[in-house]
Write a structure and sequence with these properties.
This protein is of the alpha+beta class. The chain contains three helices and eleven strands, in the order E-H-E-E-E-E-H-E-E-H-E-E-E-E. It has an eleven-stranded antiparallel beta sheet. A hairpin with a 2-residue loop joins strand 3 and strand 4. The longest helix has 19 residues, at about 35-55. It is globular.
């Protein structure tokens, strides 16, 4: 787990920006939040807070990146504070996450036609082995989740996956489109499945996303991912979201951390399945 970059006694001197709470159903590992979901929740709140504080008024257009420092707890109020161009998320005196501006996400993944993405889903590795089968986003044991099944693209490299997603009525943010934090969540988990989680569990460490348009409720969209496999503990991937006609709706880059079985989950830098 990464320690706070500043002493926690500075907490009281930071401007409070409200709280967030992740419902229990939005888990990744059994007892902590899905990394993409909480990153999206933090990013949206941080964006509004930074605009209010006018911390980014003179900055070039960019995106927000969220670094997860500890497992984000469920059903618990987390406090947001501002510190210059950063927004910190706290569980008591423990730093959970940091959101900060970064240059626009430039990398993306090629579009996969819906018919090919549907074929990829039939080979989804999570149906055979899943490190966190109860994950809200991609867990096969979660009929109430997003039910993503990112499988290897037929004829493509091993590190490329694709799947379909049709946001249901429970994804509606009140505008007829999927809530931003759910789009972040959908862009998160496919990345992990490009990195062979069957070897050992992987969890999200850092994520940045650029969402140009959110999918409509009931609209079937395509998610694609491309990873950079390796033997190290830290791995990277890129994901993208498309309409069925190939129009890109969003893209994300992420850093994942491979866990070791010797380290209890509560002591690992984690955030997602």
């Amino acid at each position: 787990m990464s320690p706070p970059s500043e002493p926690v006694h500075a907490f009281a001197d930071r401007p409070a920006l409200g709280t967030i709470r992740v419902a229990r159903r939005h888990n990744g590992p059994p007892d902590s939040a899905n990394g993409g979901y909480v990153s999206g929740l933090v990013a949206e709140r941080a964006r509004r807070a930074l605009e209010t504080l006018r911390e980014t008024a003179r900055e070039p257009e960019g995106d927000l990146a969220v670094q997860l420092h500890a497992p984000p707890p469920l059903a618990t109020d987390l406090t947001l504070t501002g510190a210059g161009r950063r927004v910190h998320v706290w569980h008591g005196e423990h730093l959970v996450a940091t959101a900060s501006p970064q240059p626009p996400v430039a990398d993306t993944v090629d579009f996969v036609p819906p018919s090919l993405a549907e074929r990829a889903m039939s080979a989804y590795g999570g149906h055979r082995h899943h490190p966190f089968p109860g994950c809200f986003v991609c867990g096969p044991a979660r009929p109430d989740g997003l039910r993503l099944a990112p499988g290897p693209v037929p004829g493509g490299p091993d590190s490329r996956v694709a799947c379909l997603w049709t946001p249901g009525a429970d994804c509606d943010d009140g505008t007829g489109t999927a809530a931003a934090e759910l789009v972040w969540a959908a862009l998160d988990c496919p990345g992990g499945w490009t990195l062979d989680p069957s070897r050992s569990p992987l969890v999200l460490g850092r994520m940045a996303a650029r969402i140009t348009e959110r999918p409509r409720i009931g609209e079937t969209v395509v998610l694609t991912g491309r990873g950079t496999p390796g033997d190290g503990r830290t791995l990277t991937c890129v994901t993208a979201l498309f309409r069925a006609d190939g129009t890109e709706l969003g893209r994300a880059t992420a850093t994942w951390v491979r866990l070791t079985t010797a380290t209890p989950l509560q002591h690992r830098k984690v955030g997602s399945s």
